[in-house]
Each structure stands twice: as structure tokens, then as C-alpha cells.
């Protein structure tokens, strides 16, 4: 995933748009906001986007029509927003090439989590990550420390991999929750602390001193110490 994925947001309600722009930009996305389908098509024809969020009820065309038009020029992932919860709309949206569907009202944090999940699912696999004795086997989805397999749970694996992919970057607990939990709203940020503690314990048991690779930044979050 790019460091700053570019999102095309098409939403004609300013209050909703402002909330989503703030949530996405806070989580290191670049956002271009369009009020109409016509504006969105113009932006899409001149810019490179990694993702599109489309409101179904636009003033000049439906989000479904816009999706159909976008699919003629782009294969970017698409998330629909709608005030209706009709099965027909959901099915039609997915058949037109949409990747997900969210009914209003929704949590901006949920939207960010869904965008990240879809980008991870649709982007090509990154090369195997390696860092200071840690090695990620992409195909097997396993992490080794000094050649020894770490016996990680699914959430531990996802957390450690996030840190490995960007050494030195400080991730907040909320950011780690969004990366490692399918429904981040169902757990608390203290869940991250418990899992980091468990990862450190397994690193210590596998390769002495490796637990120090995960650095706690008080009041901020966690990071993986960059390779010196």
C-alpha cells in the first residue's frame, strides 16, 4: 500500500464529507472531495486514485451510475455509501464492480478500517519483509526470528507485520487496531498492549534481546526499531 493512498470521495452532504475527509487525512490518506458525479469523473480523468468512496444519492446521477462510468476508465476499489439498506442496491452495486457497501449512519473510523482492509486485499502482495533478524515469509504468512519460527496468533502476526513493514514509524493504538482487527470497534486499545506484550515474550523466548525491537513511545504508540 502506498504511504499516502489517494482517495476520491464523492459525497454531496458537507457535514458527512468533512467528517470523512478529516478521518481519512488523520490516518495518512490524501483525499480529493467531489460534490457531484460530474466533478468526480473530471477528477478521475486527470488524477491517479487508489480508492473511491461513492455516495449512492448524488444530485446529478446515482452512485451506481458513477461506478459504471468509473469502471470504464479505472479498476480502483470502490466503497458505496447510502442512506438506504435495500438488498437490491447492495447486489447491484457489487455486480457493477463495487467492493463494499456501508449504510448511513456510520462511524468514520469504520470507513477508514474498511478502506484499509480493501486496499490490503486488492493490492499486489509486497515482497517478504526482513528486519534485524526478523523475516516474513509472504506465501506462508509466517514470521521467523533468527531463522526460528515465531508461534504467533493471527492478531499477533498482523500486528508484528505492520511494524515490520515500516520500521521507525510510530503507530498509535487505534491505527494498529484498524490494521489487525476486522472489527476494530469491538475491542479496546488496551487489547493492543496485551498483544504487544505477548509478542515481546515470544521474541524473547525465540531470540534473546529481540523483544527490544518493539519500542514503546509513551503517549504515542509503538514502533519497530529501524535497522542500524
CATH class of the largest domain: Alpha Beta
Q: From the 3D structure, determine the CATH topology of the largest domain.
A: Rossmann fold
Which range best describes the helical content: under 10%, 10-25%, 25-40%, 40-55%, 55-70% or over 70%?
Answer: 40-55%
Supply the number of structural domains: 2
* Total count of strands: 11
- CATH homologous superfamily annotation of the largest domain: Response regulator
Category from helices, strands and their pairing: alpha/beta
Q: Order of strands across the widest beta sheet?
A: 2-1-3-4-5
Mean pLDDT: 84
Shape: elongated
**SS element count, helices:** 8
CATH architecture of the largest domain: 3-Layer(aba) Sandwich
As a percent range, the share of strand residues is 15-25%
Low-confidence stretches: 125-130
What are the secondary-structure elements, in order, as H or E? EHEHEHEHEHEEEEHHHEE
Taking Cα atoms only, what radius of gyration do you get, to the nearest Å? 20 Å
Distance between the termini: 24 Å
Amino acid at each position: 500500500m502506498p504511504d499516502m493512498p489517494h482517495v476520491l470521495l464523492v459525497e454531496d452532504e458537507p457535514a458527512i464529507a468533512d467528517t470523512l475527509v478529516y478521518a481519512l487525512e488523520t490516518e495518512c490518506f490524501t483525499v480529493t472531495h467531489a460534490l457531484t458525479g460530474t466533478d468526480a469523473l473530471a477528477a478521475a480523468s486527470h488524477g491517479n486514485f487508489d480508492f473511491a468512496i461513492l455516495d449512492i444519492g448524488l444530485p446529478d446521477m446515482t452512485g451506481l451510475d458513477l461506478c459504471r462510468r468509473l469502471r470504464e476508465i479505472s479498476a480502483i476499489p470502490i466503497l458505496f455509501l447510502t442512506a438506504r439498506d435495500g438488498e437490491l442496491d447492495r447486489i447491484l452495486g457489487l455486480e457493477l464492480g463495487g467492493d463494499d457497501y456501508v449504510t448511513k449512519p456510520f462511524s468514520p473510523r469504520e470507513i477508514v478500517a474498511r478502506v484499509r482492509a480493501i486496499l490490503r486485499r486488492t493490492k499486489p502482495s509486497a515482497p517478504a519483509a526482513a528486519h534485524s533478524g526478523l523475516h516474513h515469509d509472504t506465501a506462508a504468512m509466517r514470521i521467523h526470528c533468527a531463522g526460528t519460527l515465531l508461534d504467533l496468533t493471527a492478531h499477533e502476526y498482523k500486528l508484528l507485520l505492520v511494524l515490520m513493514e515500516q520500521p521507525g514509524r510510530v503507530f498509535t493504538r487505534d491505527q494498529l487496531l484498524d490494521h489487525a482487527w476486522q472489527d476494530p470497534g469491538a475491542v479496546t486499545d488496551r487489547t493492543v498492549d496485551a498483544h504487544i506484550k505477548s509478542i515481546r515474550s515470544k521474541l524473547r523466548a525465540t531470540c534473546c534481546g529481540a523483544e527490544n525491537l518493539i519500542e514503546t513511545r509513551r503517549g504515542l504508540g509503538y514502533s519497530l526499531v529501524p535497522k542500524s
